[in-house]
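Assess this one:

_____
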Amino acid sequence: MHETSIVNSIMRTLEMEFEKEKLDKMKSIHLKVGILSNIEPRLLHNAYSAYHISHPEYSNVKLNIESTELKIQCEVCNHITQVKNYRFLCENCERPSKNVIQGEELLIHKVEFED
């Protein structure tokens, strides 16, 4: 389950980034996870829950995961299309496109702290 190592990496990144802040004042972490990222949001939530066993100081920090849609941009007409059923065809000119502009990401979108 690579989601466990992803959670560990996210938390290490946040600790390094906010080492001057009191991390026990963190309220929530917001992630964006693309459908092609090979990450299952449910398993990421489970891994985050397991993370609390060895790091109880984060047990009150909520993890929010937003799944991002898969979008391509046509190389011919530049139209942006939301991909459905993994059909990588431009909805404007119906040509195939491999130019993925959204759907592969795993990013820390936002971190909220208590006042």
User: Anything to note?
Assistant: The CA atoms of residues 7 and 70 lie 23 Å apart.
